[in-house]
């Protein structure tokens, strides 16, 4: 993990503001106030195919009444030829480097980053911020998680009575199967519909893409029946928009 020399201009505060799943109405009042009070907002760019991701962030800033200076930076691309752990470490190093470069000569004052969902749940912004040297004071403003948006969209409880819930990734589901002892499994960061690796017998699934947004798409039912529908719906939505953020919950009957 890399460390960098002094910022020079003196970054003292870094605010990580959870913005939910992209719906401005999911940003808390605390989050809106933070965006109004920030001096600078860093906006990542991920190429032309995902330009509307930056536009969503800018729309949230406008809805919050923010007058912060917006500074874009280009997101680096992960080296798929490296082992997974090393690939992620180097990617995080590269992102921190781009923050430093983008903020050169920026106005002094709090710098904000708009983080999808909640900065503390399956997001690496806090780990990237830990690379900065000298370390700024980090403030985290919680946001609506994809888990909340998903269970709300389907009007289902997050857990069963006295039942264990495991939140995991598609990679771990593929590699290790259904987590031992879990009655409910929530899967995030899954671009391969990894539920297809499971025996669907006795499993129900609730899936959602673009949760809380106008583009929201939902599917639910027994995994054997809903699984193929989800694969098709996900592929169609991704082809239409160039990207998709989705998650799903599974429960044994």
Walk me through what this model shows.
It is an enzyme of class 2 (transferase). It comes from Antarctobacter heliothermus. Its EC number is 2.1.1.152. This is Precorrin-6A synthase [deacetylating]. Keywords: Cobalamin biosynthesis, Methyltransferase, S-adenosyl-L-methionine, Transferase. It is a single chain. Residues 1-8 have low confidence and may be disordered. The chain is built from seven helices and ten strands. A hairpin with a 7-residue loop joins β8 (203-209) and β9 (217-222). Helices cover 32% and strands 23% of the residues. The protein has two domains: 13-144, 3-Layer(aba) Sandwich (Cobalt-precorrin-4 Transmethylase, domain 1); 147-252, 2-Layer Sandwich (Methyltransferase, Cobalt-precorrin-4 Transmethylase, Domain 2). The chain has helices spanning 29-37, 51-64, 84-102, 125-129, 146-154, 170-176, 223-241; strands at residues 13-18, 40-45, 69-74, 111-115, 137-141, 165-169, 184-188, 203-209, 217-222, 246-252. The strands form two sheets. A five-stranded parallel sheet has the order 3-2-4-1-5, with helices on both faces. A five-stranded mixed sheet has the order 6-7-10-8-9, sandwiched between helices. The chain is α/β, with parallel strands linked by helices and 253 residues long.
């Amino acid at each position: 993990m890399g460390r960098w020399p002094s910022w020079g201009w003196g970054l003292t505060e870094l605010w990580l503001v959870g913005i939910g799943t992209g719906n401005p109405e999911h940003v808390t009042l605390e989050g809106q106030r933070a965006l109004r009070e920030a001096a600078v907002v860093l906006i990542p760019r991920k190429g032309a195919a995902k330009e509307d991701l930056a536009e969503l962030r800018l729309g949230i800033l406008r809805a919050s009444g923010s007058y912060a200076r917006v500074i874009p930076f280009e997101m680096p691309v992960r080296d798929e030829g490296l082992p997974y752990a090393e690939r992620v470490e180097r990617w995080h190093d590269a992102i921190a480097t781009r923050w430093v470069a983008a903020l050169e000569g920026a106005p002094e004052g709090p710098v904000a980053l708009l983080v999808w969902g909640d900065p503390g749940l399956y997001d690496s912004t806090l780990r990237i911020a830990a690379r900065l040297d000298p370390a700024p004071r980090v403030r985290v403003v919680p946001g609506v998680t994809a888990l909340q948006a998903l269970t709300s969209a389907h009007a289902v409880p997050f857990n069963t009575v006295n039942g264990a819930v495991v939140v995991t990734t598609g990679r771990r589901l593929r590699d290790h199967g259904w987590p031992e002892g879990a009655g409910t499994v929530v899967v995030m960061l899954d671009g391969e519909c990894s539920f297809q690796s499971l025996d669907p017998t006795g499993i129900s699934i609730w899936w959602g893409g673009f949760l809380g947004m106008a583009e929201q798409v939902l599917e639910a039912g027994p995994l054997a029946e809903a699984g193929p529908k989800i694969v098709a719906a996900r592929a169609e939505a991704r082809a239409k928009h160039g990207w998709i953020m989705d998650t799903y919950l599974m429960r044994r009957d």
